[in-house]
Specification:
single chain, five-stranded mixed beta sheet
């Protein structure tokens, strides 16, 4: 599959920006905050990613695993370091998931019958041709552009390097630069319907929820603590934070949104269509539901399912009925 998604806006960051911007941290420095761990070895069955780069210096990960915030001082003061950092982080995908829950009411309390999760990260990483790209907010789109309130100015036409210089020149004690990682063109509504239809065939009568959380989808560069994290928290209670939220890393599941058209060009997928994915996984997901599974369903489960004798594991009775 050679087709690569085309820019969707004049404000999409130039893919050549990575080459035009400084390729490395410049100037001598004694800081060790930008050193990276040794590259992750390529492990069969895992996406070919340097997972160590998710582990940022002087950082915290939110409880929901959505936002990583780093307080590394060099990223707030050295625009060359920040430019390189943003390109490195944009090259790391978010972690899209499917979360399927079934529950019913039992004598006044809620009982969870199954709680199944699937990791979909491998389906936005094509084997060849990098599909992801950087995109800026549009000039007429309200966004945090270096102030404490959203605005449509200044424009975003001059690339990543200009914005890293703006951020590093900002003298405020509280400032943040945010990179969003976004999954697009994934037909979650269709997958939701497939899952619910399958669960109905098991005669489950409880309440079903299907969600599509995306973790590791936001990287925030925060100005360093003035003394410690506590003092930073106190400062933020009475001092406005200057925010830079103009840049996203786009990770397409497919070249086009569901039912969209681009002339005569067909919709193609980074790895696999939603129907092909469901053909591979529907039996495994059904088994997990019937087994009242709680946790991740992985390639190991897919292998077990493929090697197991086939038969109807359902007892034919309604289950998950309120009591």
């Amino acid at each position: 599959m050679s087709k690569r998604p085309l820019p969707t806006s004049n404000h999409q960051a130039d893919r050549d920006d990575a080459e035009a911007d400084p390729p490395a941290y410049s100037g001598p420095t004694t800081s060790t905050t930008t050193t990276t761990s040794p590259q992750t070895p390529c492990i069969p069955g895992l996406p070919n990613l340097d997972f160590h780069k998710y582990q940022l210096p002087e950082s915290i990960l939110s409880d929901d695993q959505v936002t990583t915030t780093t307080y590394a001082p060099i990223l707030s003061s050295d625009p060359n370091a920040l430019t390189k950092f943003l390109h490195e982080q944009a090259a790391l995908p978010p972690r899209p998931q499917i979360h399927i829950q079934g529950s019913h009411d039992e004598y006044g309390s809620q009982k969870t019958d199954f709680d199944v999760r699937l990791n979909m990260i491998r389906y936005i990483i094509p084997e060849s041709n990098k599909w992801h790209y950087l995109k800026f907010v549009g000039d007429h789109q309200m966004a945090f552009r270096g102030g404490a309130a959203k605005s449509t100015t200044p424009p975003t036409k001059n690339g990543v390097a200009e914005w890293t210089h703006r951020f590093c020149r900002e003298s405020s004690a509280l400032k943040t630069f945010t990179l969003e990682r976004e999954v697009i063109n994934w037909n979650t509504k269709y997958i939701d319907g497939l899952i619910r239809t399958m669960i109905a065939t098991t005669k489950y009568r409880g309440h079903v929820t299907v969600t599509f959380p995306v973790t590791h989808s936001k990287v925030v560069v925060h100005s360093p603590h003035t003394i410690n994290r506590f003092t930073t928290t106190i400062l933020s209670s009475f001092m406005a934070t200057k925010k830079f939220e103009v840049l996203s890393a786009i990770w397409p599941y497919a070249t086009l949104a569901p039912n969209a058209r681009d002339g005569d060009a067909p919709r193609s997928w980074a790895v696999q269509s939603e129907d092909a994915w469901w053909d591979d996984w529907k039996g495994v997901v059904k088994c997990a539901v019937l087994a009242r599974h709680h946790g991740w369903v992985s390639l190991d489960h897919l292998m077990d399912f493929a090697m197991a004798p086939k038969g109807d594991s359902s007892n034919g009775n309604d289950w998950g009925v309120d009591k």
